[in-house]
Amino acid sequence: MLDLQSRQQCSLGPTRLAYWIAERALIAYLPGGNELERVDSETAARSFHGGANFNPVVRPVETGGFRLEPIGQHTYSSWRLAYRVVDLAERLAPLEFEAYRAVLASDSVLALATTPTRRAAQLTGTPGPQNESIDANIFIVEPSTGAATFIASASVTARNWPFATSGECVAWTDRYCPSEGARTSAYDRRTGHIVQFGRGMWLVLTPRGELGMGKFGPQALFDLATLRYEFLLPAGPVDVAWSPDYRYAARGFTGGHGGLCP
Question: How far apart are CA 79 and CA 156, in angstroms?
Answer without folding.
Answer: 9
